[in-house]
Amino acid sequence: MSASSNPLSKIQISSHKAVCQRSNDNPNVFMFSYQKSVKVQLADKTTIRARTLDIVLNENPLQSSTTTNTLDLPTLTATSDKYKKDSFSQFQKITFNHNVRIKKGYRTVRADTVEIFPHKNICELRGNVIIRQRKKHKKHIPFVTRGDKAVLNLKTQQITLVGDEAKPISTIIRLSKHHTTSKINKA
């Protein structure tokens, strides 16, 4: 993925408080923590709002530890060659917490927690996940999907929603804008 096509090629962050520290376990790892009213704009104009944001960067990604997918779904694994070619592999994990709202064009996503693993091309959404697509053009089909967990493959844009008997996946697809009701004119 080239810098121009990767939304993480530029990240603009604002918040009321920010802390940066080097990891005690690995001097190549830096942790950035943003708190209170976090607002993020990515290179592709995606906006993200949350109460907190934590970013883990590794200056030497070849020595990074592997992070497992917490939803036990298949993940894409990057090879050492990809790490050498891809400067975005320095991002180990990006975590948004508490009332996360993502907006890109006519699509919005809400969740309690969103974790992005750029080196694996995976984004995990957990807790009260709501994905909404509005009708902006004729070809768009408006829908709302709700679930408790989802995994987005950042490379293919395929999303897998995970539910269970207690909290199944719920989707509403609207093929017409309004319900038609006929009025009878009284003479």
Secondary structure topology:
Blueprint: E1 11-14, E2 17-22, E3 29-42, E4 47-58, H1 80-85, E5 91-104, E6 107-117, E7 122-133, E8 143-153, E9 159-162, E10 170-173
Antiparallel strand pairs: 1-3, 2-3, 3-4, 4-5, 5-6, 6-7, 7-8, 8-9, 8-10
Which parts are unreliable, with pLDDT below 50 for 5 consecutive residues or more? 64-85, 179-187
Structural shape: globular
CATH architecture term: Sandwich
β-strand amount: over 45%
How many individual domains?
1
Q: What name does CATH use for the topology? A: lipopolysaccharide transport protein A fold
Order of helices and strands: EEEEHEEEEEE
CATH class bucket: Mainly Beta
DSSP strand count: 10
Give the N-terminus to C-terminus distance in angstroms: 67 Å
Could you explain the architecture of this structure?
With 187 residues, the protein is mostly beta strands. It has a single domain (7-173), classed as lipopolysaccharide transport protein A fold (Sandwich). 3% of the residues lie in helices and 49% in strands. The protein has one helix at 80-85, and strands spanning 11-14, 17-22, 29-42, 47-58, 91-104, 107-117, 122-133, 143-153, 159-162, 170-173. Strands 1, 2, 3, 4, 5, 6, 7, 8, 9 and 10 form a ten-stranded antiparallel beta sheet that branches. 19% of the residues are buried.
Descriptive terms for the model:
single chain; 187 residues; mainly beta; lipopolysaccharide transport protein A fold; ten-stranded antiparallel β-sheet; 10 strands; 3% helix; globular; disordered C terminus
What is this entry, summarized?
The chain is mainly β.
